[in-house]
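Write out the bound-state structure for alpha-L-arabinofuranose.
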Amino acid sequence: MRKTSIMFDRDFAIGATDPRLFGAFVEHLGRCVYGGIYEPGHPSADAKGFRRDVLDLVKELRPTIIRYPGGNFVSGYNWEDGVGPKDKRPKRLDLAWFSTEPNTFGTNEFMDWCKTANVEAMMAVNLGTRGGDAARNLVEYCNHAGGTYWSDLRKSHGWPQPHNVKFWCLGNEMDGPWQMEHKTATEYGRIAAEAAKMMKWVDPTLTLAACGSTARNMPTYGRWDDEVLEHTFELIDFVSLHTYLNNYAGDTAAFLASPDVLDYFIDEVVAIADAVAARRRAHKRLMLTLDEWNVWYRTRRKRADRVKEGWPIAPAILEEIYTMEDALAFGGACICLLNHADRVKAACLAQLVNVIAPIMTETGGPAWRQTIFWPFAQMSRLGRGSVLKAKVISDTYRASYYDPRGSEDHHFPVEAAYLKTAVVADVAGGVSLFLLNRDLQQEMRVTVDARNFGRLSVKEATQLHHVDLKAINDKEVPMRVKPERLDHVEVGAGGLAMTLLPASWNVIRLEP
Ligand code: AHR
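---
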């Protein structure tokens, strides 16, 4: 049995979690929109064609904000194609995913869906094939009350009230050669600054995010972020980063250590943003938006494969089937997000339905929860509050994490503690512990010193574990992997102790 301990104090906090930390992402990609959130004719569909079975699972998952409409898709998107009478909307070739986009779902349908799902909308604008002009028109269409061409067009389309979208992404992954009209940092920095300026002239209340580096191993990593922020610092509030964890190497220990590489990535982007501020002697601090994150590696596709398939509408692509092991790495990323609550103020699980998603559907059939659904739902439900600084004493292990995305530098060395944890206190005096046991063989004894909390009692204690790390949930057995009760959490005055199974994700909720 491995021995570990955790100490925290109610008065020592990292920062408060922003509700936008618990966001997700819907892209026009595969069956995320069509056959995912929107499927007119499905037995559960409402009058607008929104799948109610999916909405029920979304409500259980509890995302707070949803990024839309891409992703790579947005870099070729004409937003005007997706508004107005559906029979007049054009079908277009989507060069991001080599599909045909029918445009029967667009901005207004998305806003309606967000209302029904009770989530905030986060919009991305096309700074690939388009630029500041299309972006400022979209802001006018969405947010201006009326009396102008674009706002009156929205009204004539049947949406008299403005949508009041606050959070906007200035393009997507513009440092990636796979992007339509990929740009250099100078080109993107200038376009992002001009678009931001005009969008804020239309609506000064906007919150804007510029594209930082797509991944830590991009060849332009660091230099890209520095230059883009030099151009945009005064105009933006957030810098974005993306992360997809993988187990290409079949090295589970390294895979479970990969959330620590995400910790390094976040710390480095914070350092760059603060260096740009320091050069200006500015007190302003940019926040980070991890506006795409997940595990993704089995269903990555080469452009050449896509071409062979023709131009289908809503093909079943990127439908990653998540394992127990994926849920553990994913849980590690949840802990990483919580522990950066001071600077990561928005994040989007990519994506929501079918496409690298916590929710799967069969077109015309049922919907179910993937393994990664559980850590996210628990984080969103119990992660609201003040994240405490936790002193963890745990043995560590060394790993080499392989990440082929973006450049030649494929192996990241990492030294990971067997126990990865986040602790979140709330105003009512309760506290939630998120505990990942990364030891693949041994049980773990955890002793917790909870200072300044007084006597607590266990309100909820669960563990996510399966003897088979490759176990999945599917249509036939949708609850094969699910949280079970964690017994024998021993609570004493000012502390607690418990034993965790090897390779397990555990959540404990304590209340006074
Ligand atoms: O989420 C899938 C894709 O991953 C997005 O379209 C893109 O931004 C990223 O490369």
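---
DSSP finds ten helices and 26 strands in the chain.
The first strand starts at residue 2 and ends at 9.
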